[in-house]
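User: Reviewer 2 asked us to show a designed sequence for the structure in our supplementary figure. I'm pasting the structure tokens here. Could you produce the per-position amino acids so we can include them in the response letter?
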């Protein structure tokens, strides 16, 4: 919680559906979005963030930025692996 998982998921879907997106074929868009939405971004939350949140401490801006970067890479990597791209 508080890491920005929803923001990353929303941006990923927006990017995948953008007309200028050349990473995937148009025929794959629906399946790609579903793959993206099915990913568990909690795997990208660092142990420090988990520990701190358990103490009631929300992530810092730099922790959120790191999470967002890692989560975006995870989403792209996961979808590319699934679709063999």
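Assistant: Here is a per-position design you can include in the supplement:
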């Amino acid at each position: 919680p508080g890491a920005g998982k929803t923001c990353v998921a929303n941006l990923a879907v927006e990017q995948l559906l953008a007309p200028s997106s050349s990473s995937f074929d148009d025929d794959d868009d629906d399946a790609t979005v579903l793959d993206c939405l099915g990913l568990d971004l909690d795997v990208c939350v660092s142990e420090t963030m988990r520990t701190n949140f358990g103490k009631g401490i929300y992530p810092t801006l730099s922790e959120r930025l790191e999470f967002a970067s890692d989560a975006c890479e995870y989403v792209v990597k996961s979808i590319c692996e699934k679709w063999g791209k």
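For the response letter, you might also mention the following. The chain has a mean pLDDT of 76. Residues 8 and 68 are 6 Å apart (CA to CA).
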